[in-house]
Amino acid sequence: MKTYFSEFIGTALLLAIVTGSGIMGEALGGGNAAVALLGNSIATGAGLYVLICLLGPISGAHFNPVVSLMFWKLGHLDFSKMLGYWACQFSGAILGIWITHYMFGLAIIETSEKSRAGSGIWLSEFISTLILLSVIRIGDQEAKDRVPMLVALTVTAGYWFTSSTFFANPAVALARSFTNTFVGISPSDVPGFVIAELLATLLLMTLAALQYKKTND
Predict the structure, then answer these.
(1) Fewest CB within a 10 Å sphere: which of 26, 47, 76, 125?
(2) What is the pLDDT of residues 149-163, one digit of tens each?
(3) Quick check: helix, strand or coil at residue 125?
(4) b (16+ CB within 10 A) / e for 30-56
């Protein structure tokens, strides 16, 4: 239960950081989207670093269903535990949105009206997820003690060089459809994001399987 609680709380806090910093950045930026994105990206990267450092030793600090899927495929997580992680990640992400709305005096239940769709956006999510999972996998193999910083910096940079602002996380995509703020995404656009993220995960797992086969032949 300790590992599940870690994933639940970690994902909830991650979404609170993402959403709260988006709201604050937009409010203080006076309508300047660049200022809002800067505050959003810095806060997210800093928060991720802290969360991974503190909760990584407990649950692995996945906070992301495709990360759990990758580690299940690599044999580091059994199937039932992966499903448990998914439940904690999705429910924690939505709770994080609701808590943030309450803190900022917004309606608890909202639906985003922000459109994030199109082939370029979907390609961006595919590439974002591929990059994130590759950083985690290679870091786990070659630089385990630096994974928190590697992930935090990758996500911070990803906000700026991808058109989708680097969601790379199905739980995040779903949860952000419940906030009509700077970080929101229209519910109708969530399936496109999730499909792109899953395709990237499947590609990486296929490449990992081929590499393993080649190494052991």
Answers:
(1) 76
(2) 999 999 999 999 999
(3) helix
(4) eeeeeebbbbbbebbbebbbebbeebb
